[in-house]
């Protein structure tokens, strides 16, 4: 596993590879929590990205023995606005090894089903999300945003 830090103006970007095993979802949360300490909407990021990691492990070739996936995160702070708030954004990309199905929020169905809620949860916690790629590899991206008073 590797962790790469790329310093950029206004924020930092980190990238880490994870094994495609179920216990790695916990490691993804730990990784993000350590990087985003002080983020005003950390719980939303953790919940949304946990769903992405679990979906990657369950529904793509990354979850097969020897499979891997990469999580990349960018956190930056925009300048203070007129109201004295510092706007923040966190963008997370999860790259997998592909699979037969495209990421989609299920339509209709059983509202009490235990499965099929991952991307719906992501849509509720993220400002925006989307994906690109094909059956040989996909990247799901989510943007989390908020603002808070500067201490």
TrEMBL record:
Pfam families (UniProt xref): HATPase_c_2
Domain Histidine kinase/HSP90-like ATPase: 20-122
Keyword Thylakoid: no
Alphabetically ordered keywords of this record: Kinase, Serine/threonine-protein kinase, Transferase
Recorded superkingdom: Bacteria
The protein's name: Histidine kinase/HSP90-like ATPase domain-containing protein
Organism of origin: Actinocorallia aurantiaca
């Amino acid at each position: 596993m590797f962790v790469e830090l790329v310093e950029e103006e206004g924020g930092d970007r980190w990238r880490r590879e994870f094994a495609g095993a179920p216990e790695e979802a916990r490691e993804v949360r730990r990784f993000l929590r350590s990087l985003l300490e002080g983020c005003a909407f950390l719980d939303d990021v953790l919940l949304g990205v946990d769903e992405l990691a679990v979906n990657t492990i369950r529904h793509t070739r990354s979850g097969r023995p020897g499979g891997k996936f990469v999580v990349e995160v960018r956190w930056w702070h925009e300048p203070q606005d007129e109201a004295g708030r510092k706007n923040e954004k966190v963008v997370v990309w999860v790259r997998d090894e592909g699979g037969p199905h495209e990421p989609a929020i299920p339509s209709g169905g059983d509202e009490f089903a235990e499965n099929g809620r991952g991307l719906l949860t992501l849509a509720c916690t993220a400002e925006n999300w989307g994906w690109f790629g094909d059956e040989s590899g996909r990247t799901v991206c989510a943007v989390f945003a908020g603002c808070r008073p500067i201490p």
